[in-house]
User: Fold this.
Amino acid sequence: MLDLVLNAGPVVKLVLLILLYFSLVSWAIIFYKASIIQKAIKSSDRFLDFFWTKKRFDLVGQGLKEFSNSPIANLFREGYHEMLQLQKKGDDDEPGDFSEQMGMTEIVGRALRRATTQETHRLEKYLTFLATTGSTAPFIGLFGTVWGIMDAFHGIGQTGSASLAVVAPGISEALIATAIGLAAAIPAVMGYNHFLNKVNVLIGEMDNFSQEFLNIVERMERSN
Amino acid sequence: MTGDRKERWRQLQSVLEPGFKQMLLISLLLHLLVPALYYAPFFPKREVQKPPVYRVSLVNKPVKNPQAGRPEATTVKPKQPQPKPVVPPAPPKPVAPKPIPPKPKPEPVKPKPQPKPEVVKPEPPKPTVVKPKPKPQPVVVKPQPKPEPVDPRVDALTRRLQQLEQNQAAKDDEAARLEQLRKLRAAVAAATAAAQAPVESPVKDAPVGMVDGTGDEVGVAVIAYVQEFIRSQWAFSQYQAAGQPEAEVLLSYSKTGALTNYKFVRKSGNDVFDDSLRRAIIKSQQLPQDLPESMTFNVIFNLKDMLKR
Assistant:
């Protein structure tokens, strides 16, 4: 197997190096994302339990440090911070201030949307590389194979012999590029689909939490 | 809080997030592990028993006294349908006997004036032995009986006996002719069947001989053999086949079948063809078998002939 790689031409070797880089980074991303998303799901799960057991925002805000990996906890942090800012501003502002005209729900809603976008970007980071690997690695490998076969046939033409013993090694060396391209692409595509599904679930959870949070804020606003 | 946001922004823009370098290292180890496991000694490698490869050269083995070359092979072909020429002489025989039956008819008429049957006795063998000459007989017979007078009873008996013998001989002749005709018909039928039916080997998948061979050659001439071997090593693109180039090469082979020298006696004028021939000759430096003796001979390579094969 190793001699196939060592005997390959320079272009095929370059292609193999590129594919090795793709594979290396893809697997690193797969491990990294698996770890990050797993932590985010578990931490969010625990935070939601914690949030619904504590019925006061200030108590929830005090225990946020335990849920640093949870994107939902980060949403709460942004929303709660915005609320505190508004309350603080409302105490020492004159009447007719711009923030008073807008209403707390709208302002907190914006903060939550911004935080959701930020968390989505964080969760989706590096996934594009997996998608790129999945879609281009087979083609890069195919390029290496085509080049290798071209080389092999050129050699055959020069030697003037077309026996299987002459043709087969060149084609075999060329085909290893396609094999490695597929080996890099298959886990990348599988990882991309898996993590995208998990991220979509988390985005849905964040949207749900935002709606719940805004409902609570609006109820508080009306009671005041 | 602003500092926290800035930190998140930086993290989002960074190429390598904290913790990602560790994952890269793990990935690298994993990639090193795959070939290490492949070549690891503790995984017993499955020994694949490769079946023996036999290389069979489909050119004929040279013989010391080559009997057949191409010209002979073509001349032999017409000889094959020999059974057919045997048939034509046969038909005249059955045709010739047909006029025989009328012979006895005139004979019984003739004996009436014949007084001497004794002289007639030697005559009966004649018509049976010499069939094509029945007519002169009566001419000869007529004058013979006249001079010798014989007893009429004996004469009648003799004539009767003669007639019976003739009848018997005619029957025998007819039976022999029919038998001969039957044999000839059977021979013709067998010959035509043999010519039409394809020759099948008793052994299935048995190797066949030369495509253009007649099957009656003992071997192939050394020159034809060497030419065929060189042609088998010859590679030429049909797209470059222009005209009918023909080159003559002087080849010297040692007894062990090794090429000792070669020289273009006459070049074809087509460089591509000459180069392809040179390559093929160089590739056939060593013949698969020994030759009867060290040989030097001229071989003519014709592109059209070589492409046909």
